[in-house]
Amino acid sequence: MAVSPLDLLDLDALLTDEERDVRALARRVVDDRVRPHIAGWYERGEVPVRDLALEFGKLGLLGMHLTGYGCAGASAVAYGLACLELEAADSGVRSLVSVQGSLAMYAIWKYGSEDQKQQWLPGMAAGELIGCFGLTEPDHGSDPGNMATRARRDGDDWILTGGKMWITNAPVADVAVIWARTDEGVAGFAVPTSSPGFSAREVKLKLSLRASATGEITLDDVRVPESARLPDARGLKAPLSCLTEARFGIIWGALGAARDCLDTALAYAGSREQFGRPIAGFQLTQAKLADMALELQKGYLLALHLGRRHDEVGLRPEQVSVGKLNNVREAIKIARECRTILGANGISGEYPVLRHANNLESVLTYEGTSEIHQLVIGQKLTGLNAFGG
User: Fold this and answer.
1) Mean local confidence (pLDDT), 157-185
2) What's the rounded Cα separation, in Å, for the pair 333 and 331?
């Protein structure tokens, strides 16, 4: 009797009833609201961000691992399982939730004033307000410490000048968490996108993450009051801690894309006949399937271990780097291998495999390239800093 890849080791036995319930909830909303439409959204390069945000907000999926302000206060593992199910539909949909909850909301929740939390978080948790996270710049991706965006004091206000690139949710956001260099170091600001001088141009001609709203932000002398500055965000450590939080969701999400590819390949191989029998019955096909199932389970066990550690004592950045490096790298290998099993049909939008592979090309490099994570791990192993060397 055939079983699904994650059933080989009875991994469900490692989850609590509450975690399984959260997973089922996320899977249900994905099946109802995303899967029937995702191929068309991807083809057209559009996604109904606000409609999805409201739907996810009703179910408590936005900022679900945060506490208070309308957030669900779920465990890290439960949040990870939700990310897995969301990305099993599409990486762009998971990115919407990750950026909203683990970057924009987390930055305000962790570093904001009580007034800022009350102003933004309840609406963001409900999906009524959309947030984005402005750190990456056109010329400063992996080296945010040299960001060109500046914030200078002008009386009781701040003037922000510069630009950000590849910012998820930016074209539709109500608030942008902007990181800028000041005379005192890096600072964060919760900037209403309606502020004069703030503009967000949607990035077009993407071949990856097409079902995601991606923007380029321009800050043309944007004036914000002192009350917009995140008071507890001091130095580059603040935005990097937000990235560490978001990368945890990617560790789980990439597994969802891999699982969906493998499930598709298994179903296809069982029904596609060549030389008088299903291709699933050929040794070479079974070897591919076995190797992919093995890597999927290893990645799942890694994600679950990191999730339990997150809930118990928290995670160190290098631990998150291990998870992101391994799981995204293996997920994209699985997607590419599954494409070979589907043959020519593997490039068709009727199947999700090449869409996942294309999306994972972005996931592989955003929020830390593989090379950056290798250097983070290498520095921890050797005690030597190789960045910039």
Assistant:
1) 95
2) 5
Residue 140 CB-density burial (10 A; 0-12 exposed, 13-18 middle, 19+ buried): middle
Buried/exposed 87-112: b ≥16 CB within 10 Å, e otherwise? bbbbbbbbbbbbbbbbbbbbbbbbbb
Catalytic entry in 226, 330, 367, 371? 367
What's the mean per-residue pLDDT of the chain? 94
Count of CB atoms situated within 10 Å of the CB of 84: 27
Domain ends where: 228, 262, 281? 228
Asked if the structure places residue 46 within a domain, the reply is yes
Per-residue DSSP letter, 383: S
Q: Report the alpha-carbon distance of residue 264 to residue 7 in Å, rounded.
A: 16
Of the candidates 130, 209, 191, 203, the residue with the CA atom closest to the CA atom of residue 166? 203
Q: Are residues 245 and 363 in the same domain?
A: yes
User: Distances in Å between the alpha carbon of 74 and those of 21, 68, 78, 312?
Assistant: 12, 11, 6, 13
202 is known as an active-site residue: no
**241, 250, 239, 115: which is closest to 176 by C-alpha?**
239
What is the spatial distance between Cα 39 and Cα 294, in angstroms, rounded to a whole number?
28
> What letter would DSSP give residue 141?
S
Tokens describing residue 230: 């995140």
* pLDDT digits 0-9 by tens, 236-250: 899 989 988 899 999
Residues 223 and 261 grouped into a single domain: no
* Any domain includes 99: yes
- The C-alpha angle 367, 22, 60, rounded to 5 degrees, equals 70
Nearest Cα to Cα of residue 189 among 199, 175, 201 = 175
- Say if 37 falls within a structural domain: yes
Which among 125, 160, 194 is the end of a domain?
Answer: 125
Q: Domain tally for the chain?
A: 3
201, amino acid identity: R
The verdict on residue 389 lying in a domain is no
CATH of the domain at 89: 1.10.540.10
Name the residue range of residue 66's domain: 5-125
At 389, the pLDDT band (50, 70, 90 cuts) reads low
The 3-state DSSP class for residue 267 equals helix
Spatial contact of 115 and 287, defined as CB atoms under 8 Å apart: no
> Which pair of tokens denotes residue 324?
């992101």
Which CATH number goes with the domain that contains 276? 1.20.140.10
